Amino acid sequence: MNAELQLSVAVGSIHGASHDWTREAAQAVHDLPFNDLLFQAQTIHRGNFDPNRVQLSRLLSIKTGGCPEDCGYCSQSSHHQSGLKASKLMEVQRVIAEATKARDAGATRYCMGAAWRSPKERDMDAVVAMVEGVKALGMETCMTLGMLDLDQAQRLKQAGLDYYNHNIDTSERYYSEIISTRTFADRLETLANVRDSGMKVCCGGIVGMGEEKADRIDMLVTLANLPEPPDSVPINMLIPIEGTPLGEADAIEPIEFVRTIALARIMMPKSHVRLSAGRTAMSDEMQALCFFAGANSIFVGDTLLTAENPGEDKDSALFRRLGIKPFAREAL
Ligand code: SAM
Ligand code: DTB
Ligand code: SF4
Q1: Residue 145: which residues within 8 A CB-CB, separation 6 or more?
Q2: What is the mean pLDDT of the chain?
Q3: Pocket test for ligand 3, best of 62, 63, 71, 180 (most atoms within 8 A of CB)
Q4: Over the stretch 9-35, which tens digit does the pLDDT of each residue have?
């Protein structure tokens, strides 16, 4: 399919998504004059969502640091000297207390992350109890615990887990430059197990890791062409962490970042595109452009897993200035 045709299919995807994006077509859309790109992205966004509503998710690190994986961007890898103190798995009651605070502050989804390669059998009961407890608060539940086999995915689904976050992070080509302890194919296998269990998939990546434009485009082509596009697509801007291999990486140029968001919106019209990590380094104007380009979800609260995030006051002030409202819980 050529780019023009592909774009018209995407615009028409108000009625149904296209799963056969080629790299050439995606690149042609990415490279449109900026105003044309944003116009197309906003048109598609309006056809599928209320353009003035943004979904709020809250993160909690339920097990921090000491991770055996060597992801080059991550503060929690035991391969790097980020100075982070490792901790044990959090108590179930504490997780539920934190989730209650997040719900009362307006978050509709609670995402619990653990610095694991994959969950151990001995941790599964506690993790299941966390899902059940948070679910009982009336929130959507999400977890990110590393690789899952089908049995683990099915047990989490059974406990009431709505979403599983597992990012492909970058293109298949660039993956081994960033992580050596697992492969791109391992990531796709877990995504298939999550999908087969019936849970919703949250899958995206990081930009600003020294990758090329082609890597960002290929990452989005992989995501859009999954058997089902992910329900949520987090686009993280690298937070450079001192002591990690990417601690000195150059920041991505803001217009390039906005193009990535717009392309994600056009290629995955019905997915929530989350403006994820890195917002503390973005101006209000850059965030406003990202919302115009189709981002409609953020993480709220003053920490992500280990790194900083704009606090509630800053986000409410920005939302007021932009006339943006959070998704209401009843709309879930
Ligand atoms: N250990 C699990 C895993 O890797 O699947 C879950 C936690 S991991 C921290 C979740 C995601 O956070 C990563 O896949 C990556 O996309 C993102 N992330 C981690 N560190 C980051 C950083 N410094 N800047 C931006 N995104 C980051
Ligand atoms: C995702 O894509 N971004 C979130 C969530 N999924 C788990 C994590 C961002 C982590 C940022 C770095 C930190 O807090 O350590
Ligand atoms: Fe571990 Fe996840 Fe960090 Fe990689 S991104 S080092 S798997 S916590």
Answers
A1: 113, 114, 116, 118, 119, 127
A2: 93
A3: 71
A4: 555 443 345 579 999 999 999 999 999
Q: What is the 3-class SS of 157-187, one letter each residue?
A: HHHCCCEEECCCECCHHHHHHHCCCCCHHHH
Q: Tokens 């601690």 belong to which residue? A: 247
111 counts as catalytic = yes
Model confidence band, residue 43 (pLDDT cutoffs 50, 70, 90): very high
Catalytic residue among 74, 155, 187, 203: 74
**Per-position b or e across 201-222, b if 16+ CB within 10 A of its CB:** bbbbbbbbbbbeeebbbbbbbb
Q: What predicted TM-score, i.e. pTM, was given to this entire model? A: 0.94
- Cβ contacts of 221 within 8 Å, gap of 6 or more: 21, 22, 23, 26, 267
Residue 148 CA to ligand 3 centre (angstroms) = 14
Joined tokens for residue 272: 């929530």
Locate the ligand 3 atom nearest the alpha carbon of residue 117 and give its number: 7
**Dist CA 147 CA 153 (whole Å):** 10
Q: Is 69 close to ligand 3, i.e. is its CB under 6 Å away?
A: yes
Coil, strand, or helix at residue 193?
Answer: helix
